[in-house]
């Protein structure tokens, strides 16, 4: 009889079979690449089961006879559940097996897609889409844990921002997939439900790939800690007197003022991110009078520019500031403030070049702080044992900002006009600069510290 050994969902303890010193570099190189590729592809496909609904909204609303308010409820429920779930998942992921946590999350999210398109009740669709948000929240916390355990502090900014580009790759990938599905639907070759079940099938297969590819921490494979291998000391180490997981959360998350500061900073980042991205099409079409085709093309400039924007920010942080994020964040945010105001005042059909350049700059400049503040910089002000929970907390505040960017900015625009909306985004960048500056001295400390 063949027996299949299912790995534990709990964090794998250090292996007693230590890797010989002469084999450590080769083994580390192999597993670092394997973990990075696995996490990158995995998170890309997470977005296949998250953003597949966006390009298909006109088709879905027509088939299910859902109005704009109901679509808004569907979106809001997802963001609320995802934000809360990301924080909760973060607390569990710190003590969980990276391999199992990420694979199970993607598998469960994908299973929902196999049948949600066949539901005819709005309440059931909202419920299961919210449940999808809960499973989606299991995607990034294990990645955060993987990044801090497999990559040292001085190289982490580059690797983190490179991996963070996976969400943009996933957004564009599923956009192309859904466009192809809609084309097949128009030809009568598939049902409209395919916008759900095809990404679901891809997700299930990718979950199996993650199960095969990923592992847990280096020590679970008999390797040393990454800081020992790279001779790169951690900025913070766990106090010897701190034993329980609750003590870790309390000491290094809930009473860590720098985590609260970065969480608030991330909230402002998400106000800008979703405010500029989600409202740009309406602003350009209704206010500036640009045609729909051009508006659609302009909209793609922001996420496209975001990929190099985030990667360049990470590279500069590692190259010139030894992984410190505050300096490059401040530079990006200052330039972002002027780009937002320039877009509002100078975009229009008679200034096509300025319109395009402004959107490119906004996209380029928002992704740097977004990736660094909620990820790399957060990892530099807490211990490795709490990184998933820390990123979960900053992520939760980010989605508070995302919620405000919809309801709050709509109210501001209605009450004070579009100038009020874009001044709010510019002001958010200024508030974010102030908050980032409050972490400057703490992040500058390159010795081993305890909070």
Give a topology summary.
Blueprint: H1 24-48, H2 57-64, H3 68-93, H4 98-113, H5 122-136, H6 140-150, H7 153-164, H8 166-186, H9 194-213, H10 226-230, H11 245-254, H12 257-287, H13 292-321, H14 326-346, H15 352-379, H16 387-437, H17 440-444
Helix pairs in contact: 1-6, 1-8, 1-9, 3-5, 3-6, 3-16, 4-5, 4-6, 4-9, 6-16, 7-13, 7-15, 12-13, 12-15, 12-16, 13-14, 13-15, 14-15, 14-16, 15-16
Features:
transmembrane; Hexose phosphate transport system regulatory protein; 17 helices; Growth Hormone, Chain: A; single chain; 2 domains; OPA_Antiporter; globular; 0% strand; membrane; mainly alpha; MFS_dom
Describe this structure as you would to a colleague.
Keywords: Membrane, Transmembrane, Transmembrane helix. The protein is mostly helical. It has 2 domains: 204 residues, Growth Hormone, Chain: A; 194 residues, Up-down Bundle (Growth Hormone, Chain: A). Helices cover 74% and strands 0% of the residues. The chain has 17 helices and no strands. The C terminus is likely disordered.
